[in-house]
Amino acid sequence: MDTPRKLNLRFSWEAMLCVVLVMSLGLGRGLSGEFLGAANMSNLLADFTEIALMALPMTLIIVAAEIDLSVASVMGMSSALMGVLWHMGLPMPLVVVLVLAAGVLAGLFNGLVIVRLGLPSLAITIGTLAMFRGFSYLLLGDQAIADFPANWTTFGISTVGDSFLPQPFILVILAAIGFTVLLQSTAFGRSLYAIGSNQTAAHFSGVDVARTKIKLFVLSGFMSALAGIIYTLRFSSARGDNGEGFELSVVAAVLFGGVSIFGGKGSLVGVLLSLLIIGVLKNALTLYDVSSEVLTIVTGLLLLSSVLVPNIAERLRAARIKRVMAAKAVAAR
Amino acid sequence: MHRNIKLLAMPVLLAALLSATAMGAGIKKDLKIAFLPKQINNPYEVIADNGGLEAIKEMGGVGKVVGPSDAGASSQVSYINTLITQKQNAIVIAANDANAVVPYLKKAQAQGIKVVTFDSDTAPEGRALFINQADSESIGRGQIQLLSKLIGGEGEFAILSATPNATNQNTWIKWMEDELKKPEYAKIKLVKVAYGNDDDQKSFVETQGLLQAYPNLKAIVAPTTVGISAAARYISTSPKKGTFVVTGLGTPNQMRAFVKNGTVKAFQLWDPGALGYLAAYAAANLASGNITGKEGETFEAGKLGKRTVGKSGEVILGPPTTFDASNIDNFNF
């Protein structure tokens, strides 16, 4: 089917996100003179460190047409475990290694159950969402552990030298580069798009679907544990309820970034832009004293638009192609 | 003639001057004071914040209330950062987590912003003053004394608290347990502490669970306004209405119907509006340089009169009031 070239102008979600980001920054500048200050930029970036760390593997998972709703629970469990291990008297580097290992195990559990039982990840991870959160309450109960060593908690709240860049954000930058390379320029990344578009076809073209999926969930567990560690250090507070509800922010950021919930489509550039837009909007509106209820509505509207706009654009394009083809057919007759 | 007028005018002028200093007590005009509750829209916190706003208006300042819609450990942090950026003169906060907000409040104080906690304290380095509703000991003991009266000195009871990490709730429960050790309460038994997370639904379900799990339960003590009304609502529709005792800490407006229909005999609370009012005066006096938060300092708190700073920066509002059918109509909050 050779449609005229001009009709094939791809509707680029990323380009639109760039425009929205510039508009949001303009809005922020307009609403408050302090918005572009270094201190505020620093807060803005620090605010979504954990969400970003979990959104990176989530992008890969949703591209492969799966989902991991247990991320925030793994994060909370990691935070609680970190407190418990520290109170047992283990040295901090060992605590960090053990917590990351626990995150990997949690991810491996998710992956194995999904692959071995062949059940949808949505159902399984709703289950483990509750289960891992339960573990975190078992570990810490009603306590909050706050006596982490100062040289570690300083890392959580300091900036790089005299710049506005929060130290934990370096991890976000490194991880963003790593995940972008992984998704956009490796065979593993391409296999995710293949699985997301058509799992059976991917299987017959030689992709080990089961192994790939397990790897994804392990990666997600690891990153969620890392997010839990950073969060605990940033707030010097290990608690069982840390990060409760974050899974929705993570999924929202990924979908608003243009990743299709049906899999097979989307890019990390889009997700990173989406994280920035959500961060900028939230910060600017808070500075303007917009209440948190309205902020929730704004997030909801962003999410809705991410589902509706591409859909409407797709339909409009399909209708135009149909019209042009019909006109051609008439002319040919 | 002229002389006489001057002679007459002098004392009048002097009196006016004196009364002006006494009334204003040297509070700076146009102070920007922000209230940061644990959670906006929590009915108790709304009353406290309104009391604060009333005081700020009296003093000719600019007051506002900002805050998160969830009570997570970190959700207040971005608001603190915003208030720093907005260069407020003082922050009055009811902390969700005693430690998570401290590094950020320290940053605020380093930039000359005065910090007062009320209702729920932070670690002392996070603030200059803590405005306590009543000392925790008298609240905790008072709850057991009231309970004992209501159940006739014997039987099983359960506590329905807010979140497992709420500093104030946990301290009261500790004092309740201590009061229970006295010989006169030998026949009263605490069977369980349940947590409704300050969520109406969850508290309602927890109440139901307690009654099923402990068939001999005679009373529930809910030291949280959300918990006590949810428990009362459940009991008011159950056959145990009138015989089962629901008590704890609640607001008169919220509990009026339950007192009138016989579900609740008596409960306690201080006036949260006065608590916010006192906190605002404390913040304004700090910001005006009248006090620094040292033990023994005194300040004028409008209609509440002169107040003294106690040990470790604590200012106490006063003992709680017991509300029952005889006096509940005298209160409107």
UniProtKB/TrEMBL annotation, chain A:
The chain crosses the membrane at residues 12-32, 44-64, 94-115, 122-140, 169-193, 214-233, 245-262, 269-288, 294-313. It is a multi-pass membrane protein. Keywords: Cell inner membrane, Cell membrane, Membrane, Transmembrane, Transmembrane helix, Transport. Its main location: membrane. It is found in: Cell membrane. InterPro entries: ABC_transp_permease. The keyword Electron transport does not apply. The keyword Isomerase does not apply. It comes from the Bacteria. The complex is composed of two ATP-binding proteins (LsrA), two transmembrane proteins (LsrC and LsrD) and a solute-binding protein (LsrB). Part of the ABC transporter complex LsrABCD involved in autoinducer 2 (AI-2) import. Probably responsible for the translocation of the substrate across the membrane. This is Autoinducer 2 import system permease protein LsrD. It comes from Silvimonas iriomotensis. The lineage of its organism: Bacteria, Pseudomonadati, Pseudomonadota, Betaproteobacteria, Neisseriales.
TrEMBL record, chain B:
InterPro entries: Bact_Solute-Bind_Prot2, Peripla_BP_I, RhaS, SBP_2_dom. Keywords: Signal. The keyword Signal applies. Residues 1-24 form the signal peptide. Residues 33-290 form the Periplasmic binding protein domain. Transmembrane segments: none annotated. It is found in: Periplasm. PANTHER family: ABC-TYPE SUGAR TRANSPORT SYSTEM PERIPLASMIC COMPONENT-LIKE PROTEIN (PTHR30036:SF8), D-XYLOSE-BINDING PERIPLASMIC PROTEIN (PTHR30036). Belongs to the bacterial solute-binding protein 2 family. This is Rhamnose ABC transporter substrate-binding protein. It comes from Silvimonas iriomotensis.
